[in-house]
Glycosyltransferase
Amino acid sequence: MAMAKPTVVLLPVWASGHFIAALDAGKRLVAALGTADFSLTVLVMRPPTPESASQVAAHVARGAAAAEPIGCEVSFHHLPAVDPPTGCTSVEYFTSQYIHLHAPYVRAAVAALPLPAAALVFEFTSTTMFDVARELGVPAYVYFASSAAMLALMLQLPAIHDVMMPEEFGEMEGQHVHVQGLPPVPASCMPASVMSRKSPSYADTVYHGTRLAEADGIIVNTAAELEPAVLAAINDGRCTGGRPAPPVYPIGPVIPLSDATSSDHECLRWLDGQPRASVVFLCFGSLGFLNAEQVREAAAGLERSGQRFLWVLRSSPPAAATASAHPLAEHLPPGFLDRTKDQGLVWTSWAPQREVLAHHAVAGFVTHCGWNSVLEALWSGVPMAPWPLYAEQHLNAFELVASMGVAVRMDVDRKRSNFVEAGEVARAVRCLVSGGDEEGEGRRARERSSAMRDACRSAVAQGGSSFASLHGAAAAVRHRLEAGVDGN
Ligand code: UDP
């Protein structure tokens, strides 16, 4: 019978983008610790919606097979269901409250392990789990699935909150917020959860920002080369008011390998027929849905640009359930599909984004700036036009243009449900494909993206910065285990 091994316990958030990347990061950590000596235990919260429940079931099935990317022993432990909290006005607040309700079950699951857990790893919306870890004497690590810029902001939020009282980011028209390591950030680019100081999600985000300082380490899905200035600001204590921040381990880009090679996918076959670097890909993540007015406007912009496009145009799940097979296509301008049949493809379901971005025909990416999408684009060296919609995407969009230089500007009206005019769509798309205006904005973004592609690949390769950082995190976990839980 196999001997029990010390295990790293991972508590991922159920949303696909989080679950897959966190699982992959957990496997990498265990691989760095040594798969002969350590295993991974994933605590699975039952997702609150049927759609996410079926996605998580699929990820668990694939994760259990554990074939990719690194062979490591993974076991999944399903936590008992909890009643979803009521009256939460934002997704972020709901997520945080829902996770919190699982704390007794996390505690019971970790306490029941045959050996003390090597570490408890959870995401930044789960910081109430610090209490569980402390109670059980287990080291607590945060897996931060977004940018280091977002981490820097979170660490600074308690201090920003104190000085900005009583102003609201949403009302600071034309003003800037000083986030260490970034150029001055327009207040309009703050994450959705903190835009209104009166909202419960604001207090909740400040709470998590405060508690992050308790982590034994923060593992971030970025690379030192992608965000050097913000990482330096975190490391030298500038984001924590001069007090040392927890050790930060940039181990990314963590880009899980594809579920299966889908080279026969219709989107990829269509791309095969297009010239090299000629197509703009538009895709808005798992939850980014455009309204009917915006669909018409974006379509007009694409047509006007004259550039080739592959547009992922999905309806939100409730709309998709009640409408026809191509509900949003009904909102396209009359004759649009016919007129653009040689120019573009409108795809109305899930697309193989990673493969699309890696395809030689793709010249640029109009993205909602979810951090996974950003990393996937950088991994393939594809310049972006940021069209942020929700969560921390406006901050990501700002960083991509103003700090990393890997994206062209895109004028998004946040006060009008992130509306983008047709002319702006056309300008950004042209800029991505042809290099654009006289300032060479697109050309610069392409050069920077290409440099980032190389940086990403070097970072995770043996001896690279992320490789070293991952092994640093593993060494810290191992050291703590060897020293005994209280012997740090
Ligand atoms: N994605 C995809 N096909 C789609 C839409 C999204 O493969 O049609 C993937 C995308 O490659 C990324 C993830 O879904 O890995 C979205 O994560 P991200 O952090 O960008 O955004 P979120 O959905 O969390 O807002």
Observations:
- Residues 15-17, 283, 285-287, 312, 350-351, 353-354, 370-373, 376 surround uridine-5'-diphosphate (CB under 6 Å).
- The mean pLDDT is 91.
- The chain has two domains: 7-256+461-478, 266-456.
